[in-house]
Write a structure and sequence with these properties.
single chain, alpha/beta, three-stranded parallel sheet
């Protein structure tokens, strides 16, 4: 069972980035539900402190899988869902979904 997911987006309002940000909010809201998206907004006049915003947001969601996304970054569905799955299982991989490559690297298994 996957624990609840929170998509955390540190954000400082910026008109030139607003359209992409709005699209991203709709995307994550569609994938996980609007209540799964947490925007931590910085409205200070000083330098943008992304780390502070992330720490503030994560501290509010103990026991949940927190996905950190920039306001202008898109994480594709497979990568996002696989990352959430790995985080919820303590990083345990599914051996049937991967195969070793020469040199000890792993890659997704080919369909048979």
């Amino acid at each position: 069972m996957t624990p609840p997911v929170k998509v955390i987006i540190p954000w400082r309002p910026e008109p030139t980035r607003q359209a992409g940000f709005d699209w991203l909010l709709r995307y994550y809201g569609h994938r996980f539900g609007a209540d799964a998206v947490h925007v931590e907004t910085d409205e200070t006049d000083g330098p943008f402190n992304k780390s502070r915003l992330i720490n503030q947001a994560v501290s509010q969601h103990a026991g949940q899988v927190c996905v950190i996304s920039d306001a202008d970054a898109f994480i594709c569905d497979w990568t996002l869902r696989e990352s959430i799955r790995l985080a919820s299982t303590g990083g345990q991989t599914d051996p049937s979904a991967q195969k070793p490559e020469p040199g000890g690297n792993f890659s997704p298994a080919s369909p048979t």
